[in-house]
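Hi support team,

I submitted a single chain yesterday and got back a structure, but I'm not sure I'm reading the token output correctly. Could someone confirm the output below corresponds to the sequence I sent? I've pasted both exactly as they appear in my results page.

Thanks,
R.
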Amino acid sequence: MEYSQSGLHLTEQFEGCRLTAYQDQDGRWTIGYGHANGVTPGMVCTLDQAEAWLSQDIAWAVATVNQYVHVEISQGIFDSLVDFTFNLGSSSFEHSTLLQLVNKDDLTDAINQFERWDKVGGVEVAGLLRRRIAEEQEFES
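Hi R., thanks for writing in. Yes, this is the structure output for that exact sequence:
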């Protein structure tokens, strides 16, 4: 499957775009729309570069979801899983109960897994909770 415009909007909305490197809530240096690969303090980029990195970063999240989901799913479910993977990483997605439940076609229990991923370092983060709720809504669409 491919990531839809609705899914891309979800990612852009929650990542925001910052053209100067900053440390995210986990302490990783990040730039653009949540791009972290090779980012160093003081780094700057253009909007075009941020969008190019977003396309590359979305591509690996799409590939990850396509690789690990083994049942037929709707576009909304796919988009929510791509955003989840983009935000948390492929390893978190690959080993999640959320993925296990989706692959069992247990969508009712799967949707309840999103809000379990609202913490950084064991501390609940309001912005992550809002993102997980938005992913739930996309999942249901």
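A quick pointer for reading it: The domain at 5-140 is CATH 1.10.530.40 (Lysozyme). Let us know if anything else looks off.

Best,
Support desk
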